[in-house]
Amino acid sequence: MSNAAIELRKGALDVMILKALSWGPAHGYGISRWIRETTDGALNVEEGALYPALHRMELKGWVDPTWGLSDNARRAKYYRMTAEGRRRLRGEASSWTQFAVAMAKVLNGTNPPEWARQT
């Protein structure tokens, strides 16, 4: 994979946040770090994208925030996934898996389309 930033597709950030929270409550920095580490640095979620997404997800009832202390004793907002968030993750995970399988078929395809065979 190139060093260029990978553009997040619509809805991908929400799914990644929900997956991160499926492991338990976390603050924004922890969520961002988990995504970066899990993707071997290919995806780096900036604060300008992460916090608006978390706020939007809070309004939709997918996450529930509470204040707590981080590992370094700083006040931090922790997010936990709600039951609605778990339902959303299950549905979205299935859709994204189907999309990934379909994209792999396209990108790994060796059978040219009919119009390309007419030469």
Task: Characterise this structure.
The chain is of the alpha+beta class and 119 residues long. It has a domain at 12-92: Orthogonal Bundle (Arc Repressor Mutant, subunit A), CATH 1.10.10. It is 53% helix and 13% strand. The protein has five helices and three strands, in the order αβααββαα. The protein has helices at 12-21, 28-38, 47-59, 83-107, 114-117; strands at 26-27, 63-69, 75-81. It has a three-stranded antiparallel sheet with strand order 1-3-2. The two termini are 34 Å apart.
In short:
By secondary structure, the chain is an alpha+beta fold. The chain is 53% helix and 13% strand.
Helix and strand topology:
Layout: H1 12-21, E1 26-27, H2 28-38, H3 47-59, E2 63-69, E3 75-81, H4 83-107, H5 114-117
Antiparallel strand pairs: 1-3, 2-3
Number of DSSP strand runs: 3
CATH superfamily of the domain at 12-92: Winged helix-like DNA-binding domain superfamily/Winged helix DNA-binding domain
What's the CATH architecture name of the domain at 12-92? Orthogonal Bundle
**Radius of gyration over C-alpha positions, nearest whole angstrom:** 18 Å
Order of strands in the sheet with most strands: 1-3-2
Q: Helical region count?
A: 5
The percent range for strand residues is 5-15%
- Do you know the CATH topology of the domain at 12-92? Arc Repressor Mutant, subunit A
Q: What is the rounded distance between the termini?
A: 34 Å
CATH class of the domain at 12-92: Mainly Alpha
Q: Sheet bearing the most strands, described?
A: 3 strands, antiparallel
What are the segments in which pLDDT stays under 50 over at least 5 consecutive residues?
1-5
Judged by helices, strands and strand pairing, the structural class is alpha+beta
N-to-C series of helices and strands: HEHHEEHH
